[in-house]
Amino acid sequence: MRCEPWPGDAVDALGGVYLASVYGWRKRGGRCHWQQVGEAAQGRRLAIITAWNPGSRPTSSWQNRRRQGALRTALHKHQKIFWPAWGGLGIWWEEALALPGISCPEACNWAARFQQNAFLWVDGRRTWLVFVAPAGAVRKHRAPRRT
Length: 147
Known about the structure:
Elements: H1 8-20, E1 22-26, E2 32-36, E3 45-49, H2 61-77, E4 83-89, E5 92-100, H3 104-113, E6 118-123, E7 127-132, E8 138-141
Antiparallel strand pairs: 1-2, 1-4, 3-5, 3-6, 4-5, 6-7, 7-8
């Protein structure tokens, strides 16, 4: 997979919001798990992807629900397991899906298919934010350590 830098001004504005966001998911019948970019993954392996607000452009509630339904339908069609998930910061929250056992390149393809700028990647050791470049190339980012 080829890596490209994220556009400079977008890293400053959008990238900062993505990196500061909190992401959660719930297995069926289980408790909610919360992760932030840069945190230890504690053995968890999954991707969190949404279809909301393509290209980080605010979209109406009904359009977001319709797009999220299309993502669910496509994942069902491809026999993918997924759990309910969320991501956001402050008053900005988006519905998402946690996909266990998916590879990073495959997660990147799903995110690109639904016109997302980024997705959360939990690799078993660390939690990453993976930006999806316009051509589908990716670059991993980790939040700096808090002091």
